[in-house]
Amino acid sequence: MxxxxxxxxxxxxxxxxxxxxxxxxxxxxxxxxxxxxTTGSTQRIIFQDTIYSSTGKVEFxxxxxxxxxxxxxxxxxxxxxxxxxxxxxxxTVGDRxxxxxxxxxxxxxxxxxxxxxxxxxxxxxxxxTSFYKIKGNCxxxxxxxxxxxxSDSGTYGxxxxxxxxxxxxxxxxxx
Length: 175
Fold this sequence. Notes:
By secondary structure, the chain is mainly β. The protein has one helix spanning 155-173, and strands at residues 12-18, 31-39, 42-51, 58-61, 70-77, 83-91, 96-99, 109-112, 117-120, 127-135, 138-148. The model has no long low-confidence stretch (mean pLDDT 92).
C-alpha cells in the first residue's frame, strides 16, 4: 500500500504479508507488517512487526493530536463486532514508527482530541465505556468503566461527563 496521499512526499509504503498457517508454531501471529520508505532507488525498512490480524485491514487516524495520521492494523473482532487494533504512532520528522503496547486490548478505540484521551464503546450483554491515554509507548488504563443501561433517565451521559472530569482532575495533579 503506497501512502503518498497520507504522508505527502515521504515515500512511505506499507507491506503486510499474510501466512495462513501462521508464522511459526510458538505464536498465533499470521502477518508481517513492514513500514518502508523509498527514496530514489533506495528502500529502507523503517519498522517491522509480526502480528495477528484476522482481516489485514489498515486504517489511518490521528491518536496523538499532532495532525499526523497514525496507523491502525486490525487485530481481531469478537462476536459482537468489537474490533481491536495495533497502533503505530508515526513520526514523519524522524521517519519512525512507535508501537503502542497494550493498545490491542482496547475494543473499538476512539480518540478524543479535546481531552487527549481514548475511549471506547463496547457492545456486549451490557454496553460499557472505559478510558485510556497514551503514555510514552504504552497505554494507561484509568480503571473507570461506565455502563449504558439505555435508560430514559440519561445516566450514561452524566456518568460519561463525570468520568472525563475525574480523569482531567487526575491528570492535572500528576506531573
